[in-house]
Predict the structure.
Amino acid sequence: MSDRLVLMGAILGAHGIKGEVKVKSFTGQPAAIADYGPLLDPKRKRSFDLKVTGQGDAAKGIVIARIEGVADRNAAEALKGVELFVERERLPATAGPDEFYLADLIGLGAVDKAGAKLGEIVSVDNYGAGDLLLVVPEGGEGFVVPFTKAFVPVVDIAGGKVQLDLPADFFDVPESDEAEAAMLQEAVR
């Protein structure tokens, strides 16, 4: 199994009594999750062959699927929370240098406009407000950068780096305003 895995979906729980599951798909077309062949569960070192049998909530990317070997509700419910991955190498090639998978960013160096290394991208997360790059400098604490054109104007997958355009005060720690702190303290009482 490759070290480079891409999260394709997650099992939300059972659907009905005959072993079908609800799957949250992260693919462009939710039903396409079954097109990638066996999906991997690296935590439990197993794989699943999915067959999409119906549409759940299309707006939320949910499909109904059958998994080979899962024949009843109890077996399906036991899979709730399982994340489904595919090896990066099994994904289709991208159309050009300006198109890439977010997983391709992990491991790239992050440099400033002058080319000085700021760290390495260790993860790409999204908590609902957009993609965030976690950059960890060598021997230092990591920092988060919004993955927008303003903060990341250059992505060079072939060159192994991204260029960050950070504001001059990006790493400054704001001084605490005593009046504001006093107001907050008063509001808590």
Observations:
- The chain has two domains: 5-90, 102-163.
